[in-house]
Write a sequence for this structure.
């Protein structure tokens, strides 16, 4: 994925995280030695597939959200967040996938900082939810939100 | 004997009082949006899906007033599913014959008749349970936002 610039920040950050999660977070092994492999990677909430058990686990990599602030006289700082959600039908696998996602991003911080110029990548918060969709299917959702910052040079004279 | 008193850090205090209202508003606005996004996600998870239309119509949008965020469900069936208002009522059997519902009858071994009416009784609240699930986090989110605002405004 391309290195983020002022013009392509949203698309680049999304692509970097997407590539990383897709290559790094695929399968987890549960305590009963069975494995669980992510069936669906998507960029938005899976409205259509939510009741299709075969589509689970579903990993949702949301687009980053950004805000700007002045950093120096010549530079601005972008404060951004990106959220990754995981939907599974087993609570244990949801926890394991969440751990895998956090570990993957944590292990990637050096590359993000030095290659992609995304500073201060930190875990902001995690979230969880669960719901019975039918008599035989309970969905467990885990979510983690990361923050990052990116600096760019202002347009001259602004 | 002359006493000399030097107060340091006044600039930070001045900055704090000058910037705090603006920063507080910014952070609270950000957290309000974040909270409603969480409720939206939970509501989508809980929304009944016969056609899938209801879940897609749950959205967090900017309100008419400044710094106002609104969770809205624009589907006409939303109130009925949420509160059970207007139930039980008759509905054309053609709706039951839609693909998603037909499969349920197939499992039971019977297909619905081609014409006629059925009585709709059931409803599934989805916004209120989502709100109940997430409301406990609101105070801690606002507290974090206030802390961030104080830190930012004293810079």
């Amino acid at each position: 994925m391309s290195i983020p610039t002022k013009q392509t920040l949203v698309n680049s950050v999304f692509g970097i995280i997407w590539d990383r999660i897709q290559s790094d977070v695929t399968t987890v092994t549960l305590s009963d030695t069975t494995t669980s492999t992510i069936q669906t990677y998507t960029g938005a909430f899976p409205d259509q597939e939510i009741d299709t058990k075969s589509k689970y686990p579903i990993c949702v990599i949301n687009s980053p959200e950004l805000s700007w602030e002045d950093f120096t006289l010549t530079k601005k700082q972008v404060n951004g967040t990106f959220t990754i959600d995981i939907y599974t039908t087993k609570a244990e696998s949801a926890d394991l996938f969440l751990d895998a996602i956090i570990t993957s991003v944590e292990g990637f911080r050096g590359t993000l900082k030095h290659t992609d110029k995304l500073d201060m990548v930190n875990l902001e918060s995690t979230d969880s939810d669960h719901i019975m969709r039918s008599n035989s299917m309970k969905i467990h959702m885990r979510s983690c939100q990361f923050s990052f910052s990116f600096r760019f040079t202002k347009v001259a004279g602004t | 004997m002359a006493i000399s008193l030097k107060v340091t850090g006044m600039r930070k205090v001045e900055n704090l009082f000058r910037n705090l209202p603006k920063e507080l508003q910014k952070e609270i606005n950000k957290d309000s949006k974040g909270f409603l996004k969480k409720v939206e996600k939970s509501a989508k998870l809980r929304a009944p899906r016969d056609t899938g239309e209801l879940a897609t119509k749950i959205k967090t949008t900017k309100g008419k007033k400044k710094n106002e965020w609104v969770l809205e469900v624009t589907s006409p069936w939303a109130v009925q599913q949420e509160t059970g208002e207007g139930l039980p009522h008759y509905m054309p059997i053609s709706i039951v014959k839609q693909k998603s519902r037909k499969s349920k009858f197939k499992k039971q071994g019977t297909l619905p008749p081609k014409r006629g009416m059925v009585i709709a009784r059931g409803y599934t609240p989805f916004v209120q349970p989502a709100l109940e699930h997430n409301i406990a986090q609101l105070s801690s989110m606002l507290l974090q936002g206030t802390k961030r605002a104080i830190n930012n405004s004293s810079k």
About this structure: The CA atoms of residues 31 and 83 of chain A lie 27 Å apart. Chain A touches chain B at residues 45, 47-48, 50-51, 67, 85, 127, 129, 131, 139, 141, 143 (CB under 8 Å). Chain A has a mean pLDDT of 87.
